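Dear Dr. H.,

I hope your travels went smoothly. While you were away I took the liberty of generating a structure for the chain from your last submission, since the lab meeting agenda had it listed for discussion. I wanted you to have the full record in hand beforehand rather than looking at slides cold. The sequence, exactly as received, is reproduced here:
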Amino acid sequence: MLNRLWLLFCQAITVLLAAWFIVTTLKPGWISGARVSSFVDQVTLREAPDTGNSDTLNPGSFAGAAKVSSPAVVNIFTSKTISKSKPGKNGNPHQNEPWFRFFFGDQMPNEEPSSSLGSGVIVSPEGIILTNHHVIEGADEIDVAFADGRKRTAKLIGSDPETDIAVLKIDAKDLPSPITLGKMESVQVGDTVLAIGNPFGVGQTVTSGIVSALGRNQLGINTFENFIQTDAAINPGNSGGALVDTKGNLIGINTAIYSRSGGNMGIGFAIPINTAKQVMESIITNGSVTRGWIGVEPQNLSKELAESLNIPKDTAGVLISGVLEGGPADKAGMKPGDVLTQVNGQAVNDVVALLNRIAQINPGDEAKVNLIRKGKEITLKVQVGKRPKSKAKS
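The corresponding predicted structure, in token form, is as follows:
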């Protein structure tokens, strides 16, 4: 009797094991599903409460500023016939300095004509777009792509190579709302800023950083420099894009980066909106920017130069190392070796200050300049001329 019961028990165990093997082989989900369900039932997850409003911003978010300003930032695509002009360093004809690079899209290889990309900002309901001169320089065609994917052809109204500002216009209906212009007077070092553009052609991108410095000049990028420096990540393709504050107001036009590799290294430069606006208004009104010019070759005055000229070492001014024959300064009696200290009663401490002071005077107007010549102070009256379009002495 015991043997028979043992035999039945062994047969039952064998049948159960066979059934288990068949189920785990052919239908493993029947068993694992039961185990997962049982495990999940024991897990407690913490989820954020449903606010019922997808527009609620997370603390510290800049989504509001990006949402307001991004639609006004456009992508710019240009094409032009390949020229035989000698390229700059690293093969970029727009690169004049070894470590300063415009955010200019690389030319597409083996294409006729060559093409490149940049960014721009819609600043008026009439379709006026601000961008960089180097983005559209020499372009045969200029196309603009909106953030919603629409594309239109743009017309060049005018540009100013000396500040690297260009003004475009598009004729299209249902334009995105233009961006609001900010006030440079309220911008301070340490303010959070957003850079919006089309880096490397990947599509519209928003990055954040701070204002690292204001009034950067003597960088050798443009003739007239007064840059906002920022560490917001900006790269090739960002040229002409927007630098905005945390309210979405435009405070600068992204222009160049300091880089040894061609990529972002945390040092970028933007043209302040007050400069860009002034240039834009002049271009729209007159077709170009008119600046004053007196025809001199200026040089910053060092302590060593001051000592060699027998003037006090703490003298603030600019050494006139050359005077253009027949130019306004030459006609007024200015000579090489003079130290220019004031223009119309305003101090001139360096070459940048001299350039800006003279440029702001209307051609034809008279300027009073204070000089030191051989240790003596003299005053001359100079009839300011019009600054030539090509590179000229100040």
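Two observations you may find useful: The domain at 63-82+89-289 is CATH 2.40.10.120 (Thrombin, subunit H). Residues 84-99, 103-112 have pLDDT under 50 and may be disordered.

With kind regards,
E. W.
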